[in-house]
Amino acid sequence: MECSTAFPSRPLSRVVVTSGTHGDELGGVCLVREWLRQGNTPFLHWRSFRAQTLLANPRATKQNRRYLETDLNRCFTAERDIEVHSVNTPG
């Protein structure tokens, strides 16, 4: 099995900045909301790639709870990681 690295072989064209994955961790949520409030988000538009923000768990965030139904840290198995990696690996 091959591991992904911080230095991909191809240049990135898109990046997603997620926040709120755990609804009780609000630092990233506040940052993304501030970026969106400002409207002008130069940190999200680079020459080489475009970034998009995502509030990942809005219902839990609204209730200030880590999760409502499923702890997202427990959703991923080694088998799922291998499946996703094989689909996204060129060749």
Q: What can you see in these coordinates?
A:
It is a single chain. It is built from three helices and two strands, in the order E-H-E-H-H. With 91 residues, it is an alpha+beta fold. It has a domain of 54 residues. Strands 1-2 form a two-stranded parallel sheet. Strand 1, helix 1 and strand 2 form a beta-alpha-beta unit. The longest helix has 12 residues. The radius of gyration is 16 Å and the shape is flat.
Short description:
The chain has a domain at 12-65.
Chart the SSEs and their pairings:
Elements: E1 14-19, H1 27-38, E2 50-55, H2 58-62, H3 78-88
Parallel strand pairs: 1-2
Query: How much is the radius of gyration in Å?
Result: 16 Å
Portion in strands: 5-15%
Sheet of most strands: 2 strands, parallel
What level of helicity do the residues show?
Answer: 25-40%
β-strand number: 2
Mean pLDDT: 78
What separation lies between the terminal Cα atoms? 14 Å
Low-confidence stretches: none
Counting DSSP H or I runs of 4 or more residues, the number of helices is 3
Q: Quaternary status of these chains?
A: single chain
Read across the widest sheet, the strand sequence of neighbours is 1-2
Tell me, what's the shape? flat
- List SSEs in N-to-C order: EHEHH
Structural class, judged by helices and strands? Answer: alpha+beta
